[in-house]
Amino acid sequence: MDKQVPVSEIMTKNLIKLHLQDELSQAEALFKKHRIRHLPVVEGEHIVGMLSYNDLLRISFADAVEDDEEEIETTVYDMFSIEHVMTKKVVSVSPETSIREVATIFTQNEFHALPIVSHDNLIGIVTTTDVIRYFLTQY
Asked: Which residue ranges does the record assign to the CBS domain (predicted)?
């Protein structure tokens, strides 16, 4: 196994992202529609935060609505903004960072997604699932 494979080899490049002015109900709809658990929050192409599905669960009953339901109860969401709920101190890595280094970062922290940033611009995202899938292909 090559220990220096860059994370750019496994990162998601076709990003689904949020902007600070978006509503939390939009975030929940994106999580469910795309079956994802993490959304980068951007201003332009610069990452300003990360929102996870678990962040929504902390303030609501987001899991009480079935994934195929169209209607989302927004009463709780109307009390918060994305900026209130998102993680603001975001750890990011460059596309050249090795998958091994990314795995180490995940094991030392309590988050499961890392934005990939190049020249201060968000270019991708990698999750613990992406890393596990990569390691499974190696064995």
From this structure: 11-69, 86-139
